[in-house]
Amino acid sequence: MTVKKRTWLPLLLVLGLAFSVQAAEKAKSLKDRIRSVSNRMYGKAGRLELTAFPLTSMSLNDAFYQKLGAGIGLGYHLSEGFSIQALFTYSLNVETNNATAYTISPTGTTLIPFAGKRSLLAGADLCWSPVYGKISLAAEWILHFDTYLMGGVAFVGGEQAKRDNYAFAADFGLGARVFFSPAVALKLEIKDYMVFNDQVSFGDIEKSDVQHQLLFNLGLSFFFLDGSGED
Questions:
Q1: Residue 34: what are its φ and ψ, rounded to 5°?
Q2: Going by C-beta distance under 8 Å and a sequence separation of 6 or more, which residues neighbour residue 11?
């Protein structure tokens, strides 16, 4: 029995060593494929960003008129963390079931609301991007992304009580970019527009009001200029 144990012991040691080397090589290969983000691979500082929204700007909280808009955005990145951007969209207003005539009084008075029927939107924002990171897909593909907060002012135009009406708004929101290359990224935003001094009409009744217009924007961004090379 002693002889047999001495015969198997070197073999077990050799097999264990081979297994350890194989595991180490596999771990090294995986590490080479998934590299940590030591700095930004896709810099934005000093670059222009042009964003197209092909009917991908839509309202999220419309009770009466669902909006579907197209537009364009232009931004300039002052640094990796801060940027300014402008946005212009024009929306179609699709009437929902709630926009039909309805009764609001015991006497049976029927009134049709025109609040929120807006088409034109133009605004400017200051953006702060505190987060840059990556997403690993199946341990083979790395998607780089950043997130940002924004706030600014906007000009809103549309039809109120069957006549043109314009108002100003303050907006704030959050957004994210997913980079496909140094020059192309997918852009997503959710913005809340607080519309002031808006003439809200219910039949013959009109009053000033502050309304919230929540919009979701999905666009494709293209980056221009070489940038400052800031890390």
A1: -115, 95
A2: none
Q: The CATH number of 44-224 is which of 3.40.605.10, 3.30.470.20, 2.40.160.20, 3.10.450.50?
A: 2.40.160.20
CA distances from 191 to 59, 82, 94, 124, 128 (A): 10, 18, 20, 12, 14
Sign of torsion over alpha carbons 63, 65, 66, 69: negative
- The pLDDT assigned to 226 comes to 84
Give the global pTM: 0.73
Tell me the residue ranges of DSSP E strands in 96-204.
Answer: 102-103, 110-111, 118-137, 141-160, 163-181, 184-202
Q: pLDDT for 115-169, tens place per residue? A: 667 889 999 999 999 998 888 777 677 889 999 999 999 998 887 645 567 788 9
In tens, the pLDDT along 197-215 reads 655 655 565 666 678 889 9
Cα 208 to Cα 195: distance, rounded to the nearest angstrom: 10
DSSP string, 82-106: EEEEEEEEEEEEEE-GGGS-EE-ST
Q: Which residue, among 175, 54, 160, has the nearest Cα to 114 in the 3D structure?
A: 160
Q: For 46-98, what is each residue's pLDDT tens digit?
A: 999 999 999 899 998 777 788 999 999 999 999 999 999 999 999 988 877 77
* Of 212, 125, 117, residue with least CA distance to 161: 117
